[in-house]
Write a structure and sequence with these properties.
By secondary structure, the chain is an alpha/beta fold. The protein has a single domain (2-162), classed as Aconitase, domain 4. Helix content is 33%, strand content 19%. It has helices spanning 16-19, 30-34, 45-48, 69-76, 89-97, 106-111, 143-151, 154-162, and strands at 2-9, 54-57, 81-84, 102-104, 117-121, 126-129, 134-137. Strands 4-3-2-1-5-6-7 form a seven-stranded mixed sheet. Helix 7 (143-151) crosses helix 8.
């Protein structure tokens, strides 16, 4: 699977409270959450993000509370992939559980600027910065992590396996 989009760039330690502020956790649908995604760190994000765009960040992306709302808001906003130098482990797990592709790549986290056009080849383990003409390698997801992303998340996988999809 190859994903293409514009990069939205953030720094280190982007926590779940700025991905989706706690004041919106009473909302019930992904669409409602998406309307407030990243608003405390980037007030223009929701109005400018396009389907397929990517988030690129530094170290420890998704730190903070273990709320599943954060990756749900990101995915529902249209983001196709999150690339970071490192992820908080609970965010990593929650992202896979909802089928949001994530790429851990230190070089790409540093080598992509806001607004750069990016291509991510999930199977080949390549991130290409089209704007700058650079390419970065990462360890592709394998096993259950790959299966979850391909299925669209844990719920979709269970429905498929039960024949209720």
């Amino acid at each position: 699977m190859i994903l293409k989009g514009k990069a939205y760039k953030y720094g280190d330690h982007v926590d779940t409270d700025v991905i989706i502020p706690a004041r919106y956790l009473n909302m019930n649908t992904p669409e409602e959450l998406a309307a407030h995604c990243m608003e405390d760190i980037d007030g223009d994000f929701v109005d400018s993000v396009q389907k397929g765009d990517v988030i690129v960040a530094g170290k420890n992306f998704g730190c903070g509370s273990s709320r599943e709302h954060a990756p749900i808001a990101i995915k529902a906003a249209g983001v196709s992939c999150v690339i970071a130098e490192t992820f908080a482990r609970i965010f990593f797990r929650n992202a896979l559980n909802i089928g949001l592709p994530i790429v851990e790549c230190e070089e790409a986290g540093r080598g992509i600027a806001a607004g750069d056009e990016v291509e991510v080849d999930l199977e080949a383990g390549k991130v290409r910065n089209v704007t700058q003409g650079t390419e970065f390698d990462f360890a592709p997801l394998t096993g259950m992590a790959e299966t979850l992303v391909e299925a669209g998340g844990l719920k979709a996988l269970v429905r498929k396996r039960l024949g209720t999809a």
